[in-house]
Amino acid sequence: MEIERLLRETLDLKRMDGEPSSGLDERVMRALPDRRGRRRTTYVAAFLAAAAVMALVAVLVPWYVGRPSAVQGGPSASSRDTATLTPEPSASAVPLAHAQKWGLSFDYPAAWQVSDAPALPAVSSPSPPPGMRLESLYLDQVFGYFGTQTPQTDCTQAATKHLTSGGWSISTGVCTSIWSLHPGDVSIRVQVGPVTGANLVAGQRIPGTGETKVGGLPALFERTEGASVPNYGPDIASPGFVTAPSVESATGADVILTWYLPGNQAAQPINSDEIGPSYRITAALRGPNAAALEAQVQAVIASLEYDPAAIPLPADPVELAALEKTALAAGVTWRSAQDADNACFPRAAGSVTTTITVTPMDATLGKPLPVICTAAIEPNAMQGWTITLTVSWSAAADRQAGTWTEVRYTTSDGRTWGTVGTWPLVSFPYEVGSGKPG
Amino acid sequence: MSVKRDLVTAARRGDRDAFASLVRYESRAAYRLSLAILRDPAEAEDAVQEAFIRAWQELPNLRDPERWLPWFRRVTVNSALELNRRRGNGHASISLDEHEPEAHPDGSAGLALRDQIERLVGCLGPSDRALLVLRFGLDLELSDVAAALGIPLGTAKSRLHRALARLRAQLEATDGD
Asked: Are residues A158 and A270 in the same domain?
């Protein structure tokens, strides 16, 4: 130990001589590069350059193909030279602006407008029921628009009525837009969407959409031709969605692009009941040069990040394993905190054989039940974890075998943002009041 | 940690002022750590600058602001070691077995011993020196040392064991002289 004591005395950094020069902090700050802007701007500029090239191709190809000389035998050198002299947008001539709005941040062509939707209509007296926010009385709330023109927002007014029985009658409002696109217009609407992270992790999709990634998180995308804005509805039979008849037409549009974003659940405050928005982004565009406009819109969406940005799980296996351990312990702690008498789940991945007298849902059992409690964890596409807690029991003379499962979705550090329970509900044997021992 | 955690959170979102505060908080400790590894003040400052630039760029990947300190420590150690490699200083490593310690001029046994230790540590390669500085200079657990160096715990253990054995042998040889 002597050598270790000597090393501690000799190498103690707190007692070490030597100070950095006084200008080091300033030198560091001067040398600091632009972290986000440079990467995103480069990325978007590349896309917009591609868009400009597509615009050039979109104009030149019909012109080229349509010329009699082309049909008959190809253009002469001079005709090609003439064509390249035609004034067209240049790749480097698309100035960008940056927006940080609605919980999102993105780059867009500076010539476009960005505007907030008008405030939601107030509900007629009496005001919303206690504890209910105005936003929750409106479906498809619109946050705002950006593009070459701004549609009007049209929300049917929500109504609430205080019943003499003490309850409330609520008629929700629905928001749509009044679109009117002229040639060359593009208009993008940002509003509350229906698809959550739990939907995506569980593999639930809106029919007609494909999987993509926006802002570092999974998302759904759909491209339709024509002016009808795609619609969806809840699947009554099982969790998920079905397509529904379109109720909205983006007048003049040739193409509609729709993205469904789950929102960045990890950005929600710890222990907050307030759920951040999921998004539906609808881009309506009208030619000529629809392909170029579409490429521009795709470039804008490619630049989009959540605000605050989604943080990926660490790539380093050691860090990932440490985080996994923390997240599982936090998830199990959360479940145990809901029911202090039932703490059967192990804090590390694995199983425990034990006996319980209270279920994880806090129901008391008439007599002890031997069970195996299992905790499992795996990373998911929302850059967080899927934690699966299972209680299983074997058959006996007075009971049937069964399994209770709860799936929790957590942030990377283990904060729960979504839960999926066993469906249909599972009753434990000997549940007091359940009326079904076995 | 809460003030620092808030600064880390803000800096992660791109707040340069918050990051400037972090620089003010950490630059002295980062400098001393780099100096202990590199043993050259100018190179230590360069390493600190590189560490902060890297931290600024990689900060969005740090999920938990509470883990800022071990994370930044690792960034600092890596910057120092990389700087040393880039500048071709790796050859400064000398085998302890070949080093001939000298008696301290004032005859003070304790001081002489510490001087001797310092000289022997200075003769180590930068990565072994980093290991000893983290373990004994910062009094970190070996698992934290391994994390800071980005090496498996077993590797950290065996390297530490080897370095200590050689230092002990060298000191015993000196005592015997």
From this structure: yes
